[in-house]
């Protein structure tokens, strides 16, 4: 099966510094891959190499089966790219700009008109075709940026921080648009915004110091967020000694003010039995709920505890 993107053993050095270190991954149709990483992790370098704007030191990049180094023109036909700052001309109208972009993709005549009309429709731009881009809100300018990226109907769309600087309503609209586009294309979404990944993506990949340190589905990520502890709140004082013997319970911490943290085995949630006992004791159970790690906590945990490997020794001389 041909992957929409296949990256294998990708390296990029800037002098002695290895910015992208042995990165391999694939992207399939219908996937929205969140590409996360702290500043300087190597996201932009990886994106630029995939888009054919930066030469790798070594490695393989296939876009829909086409090698971007051997056949850049063909491979770029399959790619749509929205950089962090949308590449829009403020002095042109939306129609003029999209027609100009279409011509850059060698679209002419009826095909050009149809492509512009379709991109405008998909991005909700039908009513603003005659307006100057410079007069549009930032959210609409972002839509124009996405429209230029999908104009030639590429298999893969790469979006770099697409919601930065937008207000909450615009953010919701752009995320909705991304999810919609994800049904027919493969999308890579580079972002610092962790909730964006949960809301818009089907898979998440974390890059840290040039290396991929996590590659998981959103379901897998949700599992990681499920910590193995419960928070219990009671009006009275429960008999903690008794609770410590419940199957699966590892430890109970008294947090004060009638709140307790109950640590348990990952595969044995003792909530039901603990509830029965506390209610039986008449200790005034107010609530008991699983504790969840935030995505920030997972991100910090993964990037702090990542086991990194030395870069390719023979490449470091380049
Ligand atoms: N042209 C360059 N010359 C030298 N070093 C560079 C160059 N471009 C990037 N770097 C370095 O390579 C590393 C990765 O940078 P890159 O821009 O790919 O990271 P990033 O994850 O996109 O970061 P950010 O989110 O801050 O844009 C950083 O240490 C950066 O300083």
Report on this structure:
- By secondary structure, the chain is α/β, with parallel strands linked by helices.
- It is built from 11 helices and 14 strands.
- The chain has helices at 43-50, 72-77, 94-104, 109-122, 138-150, 168-182, 194-200, 218-225, 240-244, 271-280, 295-305, and strands at residues 5-14, 17-27, 32-36, 58-63, 66-67, 79-82, 156-160, 186-191, 203-208, 211-217, 226-234, 249-256, 259-264, 285-292.
- The strands form 3 sheets. A 6-stranded mixed sheet has the order 6-7-8-3-9-10, sandwiched between helices. A 4-stranded antiparallel sheet has the order 2-1-4-5. Strands 12-13-11-14 form a 4-stranded antiparallel sheet.
- Strand 7 (156-160), helix 6 (168-182) and strand 8 (186-191) form a beta-alpha-beta unit.
- Helix 3 (94-104) packs across helix 4 (109-122), helix 4 (109-122) packs across helix 5 and helix 5 (138-150) packs parallel to helix 6 (168-182).
- Bound molecules: adenosine-5'-triphosphate (ATP).
- Adenosine-5'-triphosphate binds at residues 14, 17, 19, 37, 39-45.
Tell me the layout of helices and strands.
Elements: E1 5-14, E2 17-27, E3 32-36, H1 43-50, E4 58-63, E5 66-67, H2 72-77, E6 79-82, H3 94-104, H4 109-122, H5 138-150, E7 156-160, H6 168-182, E8 186-191, H7 194-200, E9 203-208, E10 211-217, H8 218-225, E11 226-234, H9 240-244, E12 249-256, E13 259-264, H10 271-280, E14 285-292, H11 295-305
Parallel strand pairs: 3-8, 3-9, 6-7, 7-8
Antiparallel strand pairs: 1-2, 1-4, 4-5, 9-10, 11-13, 11-14, 12-13
The structure holds adenosine-5'-triphosphate (ATP).
